[in-house]
Design goal:
alpha/beta; Rossmann fold; six-stranded antiparallel β-sheet; six-stranded mixed β-sheet
Amino acid sequence: MITTLHIKNIGIIDDLIIDLNKGLNVLTGETGAGKTLIVDSLNIIAGGRFSKDMIRKGQNVSFVELCLYLPNNSNSIDGNIIVSREINNSGKNLCKINGRLVTVNELKNFMKNIIDIHGQNDNQTLMDTESHTKYLDKFIGEKILTDYEQYINLYNTYKELNEKLKNNYGDEREKQRRLDLLEYQYKEIKSASLKIGEDEKLEEKRKIIMNSEKVAQSLNTVTNNLEGTVIDVVNDSIRALEKIENVDERYAQKLIELKNIYYEVQELSRDVSDMQEDTYFDEQERNEIETRLDTIYSLKRKYGNTIEEILQYKEELEKEINMIENLDEENRRIKNNIEKISKEMDIICKKITLERKENSKVLNEMINRELSELEMKNAKFNAKVIEDNEFNINGKSHVEFLISTNIGEEEKKLNKIASGGEMSRIMLAIKTVLSNIDEVPVLVFDEIDTGISGKAANSVGIKLRKISQNHQVLIVTHLATIAAKGEHNYYIYKEVNDNKTNTKVKLLNEEETIKEIARIASGEVTQIAISHAKELREKYVA
């Protein structure tokens, strides 16, 4: 339940704290006092949408905080949880659950199991078709839950076996497709006969061939210079020094050095000449190298960045091919188990579907009776059981809540009902019947009395009191009949201070509650109105 609601800077709400109680909490007050803003704030803290226009004029940040008491919640300390949401005018959200930062989506998922808001902007599990099957099953009770528990155990095994079969390529077509792909890749790599390092050698050869003409010209120039001009000049110089080598020891030494240079130049000339002979341009060889490199690059794009990686991938392909070819026996065993479990599941599913169909009629009758008492005599609710072709989490059938609000109209899903007043009464009828099994602890009804009065209003009040025995209920109402049934009545009003309008709230005592019921009933508090209010209060609350 909500123990405290704290709201800051939303609409005309400046800083408001409301301490709420168990049972039926009734919020009344004059139009424009801020009752709907309180419901809007609950919708915000439940993860609903927020408009920057809702931030109080002159403020930059709005804030909503709930103190919750959930004794069965394992994430809380002594059952106490504090949830908050802060929004600034830039649209940035700051959401926390017990001090831990969460996203808006995480907040919404957490709060959907705590609070249902029924009104113009609903946030409720009953609108979620995925929960409808669960509601009917809980309504049916222990018998179907036992069958369902047996089914879900088999279903989990069924899913595991199918997943294993899928991973084992148990589907023959999928298996063959996979084998074809693996064998194609394996043959493609194998046929290439790759050798580690060959790409580097081919690149070097390719570089030489591509530059062969330039290399040949340069080496030819070097050879001509060395074999012609350079050697002749050095040889002439040697002859000149030989004539004077005996004149001075220094000339003899230089002669030796020059002869060494002569021999070195001759050696260099021979080496360059050899290089020149090795330099050639072969168009065919170049094409062969280009083709081979293209093959290697193509394999690299598909199977690895290096030849080593490609060859490693080839080994992995070979292992997987061998594994798939030897899985037939295991897959036959898995398929046999799946077939056996499917037969067991089919038997249980038929029982579950039959139970759902039989009990949906009972549920429909009870809810339609509630709708009739809420002055929706022409409405027809239908918890429709739809059979499925495949096994799923619900068995081989699921439930959708449908309704026709007028004679001759087609059934529609609950979220297709346009009228907020109709929707609220439909929700109230469903909640009345399912109140004992509905695990959402807090229910909020905004303007549920729109368009009703008299007997229908009285029925609404009675049903709210019934629901409040198992839930904390908050209702905004303008009807004295409903307000008279409140266990805790709150008066919402406005005050003007320093030229600013502020929403205020007051928990009424019994005398004040009587006066508020009288005001709602007649528009002013007179003795006759008070007498009528007391009569309503005594008749329905005592």
